[in-house]
Specification:
This protein is an all-alpha fold. Helix content is 90%, strand content 0%. It has four helices and no strands. α1 packs parallel to α3. It is rod-shaped.
Length: 165
Amino acid sequence: MAEIWNTLVGAGAVVVGAGLTGGFTLLKGRQERTDKERDRLEQRITRHREIRREAYLSLLNNAEAVDTLQRDFTMSEEGSPEEFRSELDTASARLHQSLLVVRMEGPSEVADAAQELVRKYHELSGHMRSDDGMTLGDLLTTRIETLNAREEFLRATTKALDSSQ
């Protein structure tokens, strides 16, 4: 009878040991899966942040190109207005394309600030194209509004990029 009890106790110990080992293995597998899911989510968030940042930088670079053309035109007495208009149309088209990407990437606060910035550049370009006799005061006012819109866009992008970390 002692042999049977020893056998049963030994078998029971093996079953309990196997159960514990299986339980620990299961817990470890779940933890590893959770860690992998967290890593994938972090990578996805990081990638999305990079895409947004690239879109924001593209808009700023294209806005700078329009800004440079506008500034050069107002400071220069050389070159033909038609050449200027052609270059400005091309730069404005690139700026608008960048705006579309920013609007797709969001968030809405950044998209709204980008829309306002592009609208201000477009307004200034419109004044420069027209022959309505824009005064220096009008030019400076529009220019200051454009710079303020750019600062608001930068604030919105900084906030959006900081919150997506």
